[in-house]
Amino acid sequence: MRKFKSLVVVVDNDEQVCRAIKRLLRSSGFASETFRAVDQLLEMIDLTPSFRPACIVLDIGGPGLTGLDAHHRLADSGIPVIVMTARDEIGLREQALASGAIAYLRKPFNGQILIKAVQLAINGSRD
After folding, report:
1. Is 82 within 8 Å of 101 (Cβ atoms)?
2. Quick one: pLDDT band at residue 127, thresholds 50, 70, 90?
3. CB 8 within 8 A of CB 31
4. Four-point Cα dihedral 41, 119, 18, 67, nearest 10
5. In the chain, which end has fewer C-beta atoms inside a 10 angstrom radius, N or C?
6. Where are the domains of the chain?
7. Minimal CA–CA distance to 30: which of 5, 3, 56, 57?
């Protein structure tokens, strides 16, 4: 039986993106859980104190709360956040990084870049 590293949560309203990232994370040894909306993740964190992901990969877009709104709400949790987006807006990267995001990934991105960002977020290194 395979022992997984830390739990990484993926939030994206596109089910195919969630599945693809989940497969990538699992193939790199990370346990993962996906949510289709930021509200679902925040509710899970609020209602289940034992639910503590090591890292969150968060799409900036999506229905309901935006990824940046959620990132602000998660700021005090100490959970590292990687933001991703398909949008190409001036200042969005700076806004995300200024709010404390570990990395900013523009879709589509190379899978190895995501894995390195997750490793950096969790371990503080790129091992």
Report:
1. yes
2. very low
3. yes
4. 50
5. N
6. 7-123
7. 5
